[in-house]
Amino acid sequence: ACEHPWLLDRVLKGDWSYQGFVMSDWGAVHGAAASALAGLDQESAGEVFDTEVFFDGSLRRAVAEGKVPMSRIDDMVHRILRNMFANGVIDDPVAPARIDFDADGKVSRRAAEAGAVLLRNPNDLLPLSRQLKSVAVIGGHADQGVMAGGGSSAVTDVDGDPVPGLAPLAWPGPQKYQPSAPLKAIAKLARGRVAYADGTDVAAAAKLAAASEVAVVFVTQWSAESFDRPDMTLSDNQDALVAAVAKANRRTVVVLQNGGAVTMPWLNKVGAVLEAWYPGSRGGDAIARLLFGEVAPSGRLPMTWPKDEAQLPRPTIEGAGLGATTQPADHVDYNIEGADVGYRWFQRKQLTPLFPFGYGLTYTHFEYADLKATIAAAGNLTLSFLVTNAGKRAGADVPQIYAILPGTTAPRRLVGWSKLTLEPGESRRVEIVADQRLLARYDDVRHRWHVAAGAYRMQLGHSAVNVAGEVTVNLAESMPGSP
User: What is the pTM of this model?
Assistant: First the structure.
C-alpha cells in the first residue's frame, strides 16, 4: 500500500482532497523512491521494523539521482508542518501536567457502562436486587480485575497488573488485567453474602452456585492484533464451567469479557448474559453497577454475532492463529462476500444469526410510531418518528434507519441512527438524516457516487433484522460528493 499511487495520490489526496500526510505502519516500507512517488510522506519506526530507514540515505540518493523530484520532498514537509500548525502542535503545545487518574477512571467507567450490551434477560433476572442473601461470583479472575485486550491496545494500570505472568509473554502479549475487581464492586452493592470460586474446579464452583441465590460467572476470551482466533469456542473449559453452574442454579448470569463473537452452547440454560467487552480501568465497578441496576445497559452490537463458524464467509481460517506454524494466506478472495460484509452477508445468504447487528436489551422497552419522511430542497432525506419508553424505568434507546435501494435485491443498508434517553412513559420525536452516500452506489465507469432515481424503502428498526416501521420515498437522481 505504501507504493500504491492510485490509492494514496489519486483517490486520497486527489479525489478526496486530503490535506494531511500519509505515514507508514511499522514494517510496511520496502523502498524509498517507489514509496515517495506513490504518496507516502513519512516512514514510521523504520529503524526498528523496516529492513532499513528508507527515508534517510536511500531517499537522499534517490533525490540526488533525479529519481524523486525535490518538489515531492517539499510536499512531504508542507503536509507534515501544515497539520502540526492546524492542530496546535507549534502554537499551542500540550503542557505536561499531573494526571487525574480518578477523573479519568470515571470517564472510563461511564464508557464501559454505555458500551456493555445486554444479550439475554428473558425473565428479568437483571437487574439484581440488593436484598439478595447470597451471591456466588465465579471465574475470570473476578477477584483481581478485568481483562484487557492485547497488542498495542494493552495498557498497564497505574496500580500495576494484578494477574501477571499470563501467556503469551511475548508479542502480542502479555495478557493484562486492570485492577478493578468485580468481586469487590459486587460486594459493595450486595447486602448479603458474596463468595468467590475461581472456576478451575468445576464441581466446587457448581457447589457454591447451588448454595447461592444467584451465580455470576465471568468468562474471558483474550484477543489481540496480529492474529486471528482459530475458532469461536471459549478457551480453558469455560463452556463446561458455565453449563455446570447453570445446572446447579438456574439463576445464573454470565458476564463476557472478549473482543468478538463466541459460541454459547449454554445460552438457553442461563438467566442472563451481559457482554462487557474489555471494560477498562474501572471495568469491575461498571459491571457491578450494570448488574444491580445502578445504571442500565445501553450498548448495541457493532457486529453480527454468528451462531457458529458455519455461518461465516470463511468458516476456516488457516495459519492465522496465535502460535501458528504457517503464514496466513497471501491472497484472500474478497469476492466471496464483496461489499456485503457483516449484517449484509447474513441477509444475502438468508442466515439467522445468534444476535443481529444493532441488537441490545436494557431494563425497559421502547415503542416506535408515526414514521414520516421529508425531502429538503437540497435533496437531503429526513426520517422522523415517535419513540416512547413503555417501561417502568429510565433507559437509553438506539433507533436505526435502514434503506432498501430501488431496482435491487441487495440487502438493506444502515443509513442513520440516533441515541436518546427517556424517562418512564416519556415520548420524544426523533429526526434522522439519511446519509446520502449510503443511499448511493459507486459508478466505476464514471468514477462517481450515484443516487439512482426511484422508490426507496426506508425501514425503522431496533436492529438489522427487527423492523418496526416502513415508509417508501421517491428520490430524484443525484451525485453526492465523494466520502
Answer: 0.92
